[in-house]
Each structure stands twice: as C-alpha cells, then as structure tokens.
Amino acid sequence: MELVHGGYWIFYAIDSIEADYKALVVCLVLSKIKATISSSTGYHHLVWKRRNAGKHGGLVSTNRVIHEINRTLHQLTRVRYAWIPNIPLIWQDMIQYFEGYKPILITTRVTWQLLFHGWYKCNTDGASKGNPGPSSLGFCVRDDEGDMVYAREVDLGVTTNVVAEDKAILQGLEYCMEHDLHPLILETDSLVLKKAIEGEWDPPWVHPTFIHSLNCLVQGEG
Q1: Distance CA 151, CA 176 (A)
Q2: For the chain, which end, N or C, has fewer CB atoms within 10 Å of the first or last residue's CB respectively?
Q3: What pTM, to 2 d.p., does this model score?
Q4: What is the mean pLDDT of each run of 10 residues along the chain (222 residues)?
C-alpha cells in the first residue's frame, strides 16, 4: 500500500486475497437464487475455509472452492426440487435453467366422495403464515352419510407448514382411534407427507418422529 499524489491510497492485492475475492464473487452471484436454498452460510464457510488454509500454509485452490460450491448448490436444489429432472451442475447454467423453467400445471377437480356403509373419513389440513410463522391445524370427521361427526381447530403458535400438516394428521388419527371411528379413510392435501407416509419420498424436513408416531397409532401402540 502506498500514498500517491492527491491523498489517495493504492492497495496491491496479495494473490491469496485476490483468489478469495474470486470465490466471494461466486457466493454473491449465488445469492441471486436464495429462494432455491435455505441459507448461504455453507458458501461463506467454504470461502472462510480456503482463506484459513492459505493463511496457515495449506493449499486450497479457488477452482476447488468454486467446485465445492457448485456441488453443494446442486445437491440442495435436487433435495428442494426433487421432482425436477436434469438440473445442471454449473451454477451459471443452473441460474439460466431456473429463470427459464416453466412448470407443467395439471388441474384435477377434487370432490368429497361418499363412503361405503359404516365407514368414516377424516380430512386434515395445516397452514403456516410465513413458514415458519403463525400456524394452525384443523381436521373434521364425517360418517358414511356425509354428516359431521367432529371437527377441531388448534392454534400452534410459530412453526412450519409441514409441522402443522403432520400434527393435523396425528391429532385427527388419534381422535378417531380413541372414539372407535373405524374403518377409516384419512385424507390430507399434503403431497410431501403422503409420499413420506407411503415411503416414496424421504425429505429431510419431515421429522422421523412423525412417521414413528403414525406407525405406533396405526399399530395400536400409541
């Protein structure tokens, strides 16, 4: 660093610092698609790890940091958007891919279907404003004539949408089991929980205790 005419300072970048800034640029660009991921902390950690490796004599190349960022981002997007095929690995291609992505919307008319004689149906729902945010659950039980047997709404405080949905399922099932309302059909509008219950999906945001509690209720152990 030196002082030049006019009172301006000139800074000469050290190679290792310059490389860190190159990796940091990648992190800043990745922040454009924060909606795809939960946090950019992982990318900051990679830059921090490279800086400390260089400071203490280790070797971590800028290209290596960029590669790890690309790989981590790709894994996160595959988990977050499990139904989207062929997500590109390189972050520039990934941004372009998601900016041009147009989902195929399929609409299906949903109506409440009458049951077989002697059956009951429990419909559940949960919602969160902000996710996480103020949340509540609700469920109702009807008989084979479509008449309301029981309904419940519960304020859950601050939690997530998935938690509200799974608590609605558990409370609805618990009530039906306690009052011998069976045979029973349980309906939920949560595709994630439906797939998790059926064992088709294993999303990390569905807590394993939910599946365990559900199995215990079904098997009469809860």
Answers
A1: 11
A2: N
A3: 0.53
A4: 44 44 47 43 57 63 76 83 84 86 82 88 94 95 94 95 93 94 92 86 78 80 50
